[in-house]
């Protein structure tokens, strides 16, 4: 097993971390409301609109987290990592970027 050092830099950005958590809590609250709407057999379009709102919130949190990752974890890993580690970091970013763009 490879000993890989990861950089956990969200703690270095307390205000951004707080905003990400607020956004995720909003999404969680929306999901609870959507579950109620489904249980109450609300109109499908209204449910879908709420789902789109959750999707937007999650996307926003993902974008901010990725931005922080690139400016901290990724940057530090690229400076201090081996060639194998740098390739792995690049692969991770490519993978999550593909997911984020879906």
From TrEMBL:
GO terms for molecular function: DNA binding; metal ion binding. GO terms for biological process: negative regulation of DNA-templated transcription. It comes from the Bacteria. InterPro entries: Metal_Tscrpt_repr, Metal_Tscrpt_repr_sf. PANTHER family: TRANSCRIPTIONAL REPRESSOR FRMR-RELATED (PTHR33677). This is Copper-sensing transcriptional repressor CsoR. It comes from candidate division CPR3 bacterium GW2011_GWF2_35_18.
